Please model this.
Amino acid sequence: MTIMKSALAMAVAAILTGYTGAALAKTVKVTMHANENSVAIDNKGTKYPAWTFDGGIPGPVVRVTEGDVVEFELVNDGTNKESHSMDFHAAIVDVLNEFAPVKPGETKKFKFDAKYPGVFMYHCGSMPMHQHIARGMYGIVIVDPKEGYSDRYPKPDREYVLVQGQFFPNADDHHAIMENQGWGGTLINGKMFHYDPVHDPNASQVLEAKPGERVRIFYVNANVNLPAAIHPIAGVWDRVYANGNPKNVVYGMATYQLGVSEAATLDIVSPADRPTNNAIVDHTMGAAMRGAITVLMNKPDADPKAGKGNLIVGR
Ligand SMILES: [Cu+2]
Model:
C-alpha cells in the first residue's frame, strides 16, 4: 500500500507516528494490489493459497482522520485469475459503482469521505463473496476522531490491531465455506494462535504493555459466518466503543459481542502495582480452541516501541 498525504506537517507526522490528536482534513491516497498468493497461516509456516490485498492477511491498515477524503485505487494484477473488488464499510457510495468487480489486468479508482469516526471492516465483494473473504481479502479502516482525545476517549498508552477471520483449509470448496463446513481454524492477524506461546510453542510474539497502561485494541470480526465474543481473560474491558466511535462508549464490560463484519475499539487497563497477563479470546470456545487466543503481557520491561506508531500490528 502506498499512502501519500498533503502538505501539513502535522498530517505527515500522523502517518509516520500514529494518531496524535486533532488534525485538519486532508486527502489520503491509498493503493492496494489484489494478489492471489501463498501465505503462512500458522506460526510454523504452513502454506495456504490465499487471495489478499497487498499479499498479506489481513490487508494493510488504512488509518485516516474523520473528515478526510480517501482516494482509493485497486489494481487487479494481470497474473490473477479472479475478479476482485473493494468494499469499505467506512464508505457511503454506490455498491454497483464504486464496489463493482475489477477484472484481472484492470484498475479501479474511487474516493469517499471518512464521515464517521471509528473502526470498520473492509473486504473484497466479488462473487463468491464468502470465498473471497475466507481466503483472506479483508482488513481494517481506523478513522480517528477529528476532535482528538477527550475524557470520553482518552489517549491510550499502546494500540493494537486484531483482525479475526475463519480459516477453511479447503480453499476451493466455496459451497462448504458458505455452509460453514470444514472450518479448520481461527486466524488472528492471519495466523492461528498468532500471539499465543502458551498454546502454540511455535508462537514467538505477544502483545506487550507496562503495568497500569491503557491498551487500546482495534478489533474486527472478519469471520465469514460466526459472531465473536471478545473477552480479556483475567481482566475487564475498561471501556468499549461500539464501532469504535467515541460517542458509543460503554464501561466495565467482561465480554463484548461482535456480529459478523462488526468492529469495536476495546480499552483495557492492567493493575499498576504488579506484572500481569491477559488472554484476549473469542469466548466462543470453538473459535478460541481453533486459534483465537492472544496473550497480552503487562510487564515493566515491555518494549517501549510495541503498540505505537506503525507497530500496532505484529506480523
Ligand atoms: Cu477478491
User: Anything to note?
Assistant: Residues 2-144 form a domain with the Immunoglobulin-like fold (CATH 2.60.40.420). The mean pLDDT is 94. The pocket of copper (II) ion is lined by residues 51, 82, 84, 124, 126, 132, 137 (CB under 6 Å).
